[in-house]
Amino acid sequence: MAASTEVNNVDHRAPDVQRLVYSMYRKMLSGYNDQANEIVDSLPREIVQEDADIYRHLGEVL
């Protein structure tokens, strides 16, 4: 049996796609929130930095 390649053309600008990605991202964040807070709390305060550029990261995903 020959392998086939299926091309999936998804418009990353489509509102439905953006809502789905955002929803999945929020679910992922909430799933690891407690664990992440414990890790951050255990680190020395001077090495913890806030990521103020989250929208750039989301733009890379979308």
Describe the structure.
The chain is elongated, with a radius of gyration of 18 Å. It has one domain. The protein is mainly α. The longest helix has 28 residues, at 15-42. It is built from two helices and no strands.
How would a crystallographer describe the biggest sheet? none
Strand content: under 5%
Order of helices and strands: HH
Q: What value does the average pLDDT take?
A: 82
Please summarize what this structure is:
With 62 residues, this protein is mostly helical. It has one domain (15-61).
Keywords, separated by commas or semicolons:
2 helices; 0% strand; 62 residues
How is the topology of this model organized?
Blueprint: H1 15-42, H2 54-61
